[in-house]
């Protein structure tokens, strides 16, 4: 063996070229881990939104059914206490568990043709369906179709007369100073002398000359037909919530009715 041959035999073989790691690519059509995470987050967000919305709708429906409900004022009969377009909150805790009081502003179901055949505009299609659904669950104010809002003047057994020598209503012999009556309006342009039947109340609008109330629906003049049944009362209006410049609590005017005795003492 020559020196050259010996030298060649001791030289190690050349190292193989280094391997370059290539990123693993998923088969075509399969989502990457990043896209899977994004889809998971999106699903969680949608699920959370749906859950919160469902809870809000259920709570709103329960509140509307048992506690309070918004209503829209469609006419001028309660001016200037309430004007057309106002939105009010109605407490359903009156007449039960809390008692009705003279001076309360109440919402009640039409006793029968008090509203006449007044046409009402309705939205059709998807918008109408959405509005109806939101109104049903209490997220939009009731458009007041089939309902009226008036001031309670007399409780069961009250003796109400229009008018005394000062041109005031009297309840159980007490003359009423009515600051809520619209300026320029008389307490009533109809003369009456009635006693409110048991289980019923006598109601009048604050805009006395433009209100279809108990006076106009009592043809016999004895209070029996003009008084409304307590079972028709939805609740007591407590707060004007819209428009913002008219937000205010609605008073039952204790100074006006505080001196009225019970019917047995009148």
From TrEMBL:
CDD domains: S26_SPase_I (cd06530). Pfam families: Peptidase_S26. One of its GO terms (cellular component) is plasma membrane. The chain crosses the membrane at residues 45-67. Residues 11-26 have a biased composition (Pro residues). One of its GO terms (biological process) is signal peptide processing. The keyword Hydrolase applies. The active site is at residues 77, 150. Residues 1-36 are annotated as: Disordered. Keywords: Hydrolase, Membrane, Protease, Transmembrane, Transmembrane helix. One of its GO terms (molecular function) is serine-type endopeptidase activity. It catalyses: Cleavage of hydrophobic, N-terminal signal or leader sequences from secreted and periplasmic proteins. Residues 47-242 form the Peptidase S26 domain. It is found in: Cell membrane; Membrane. NCBIfam families: sigpep_I_bact (TIGR02227). This is Signal peptidase I.
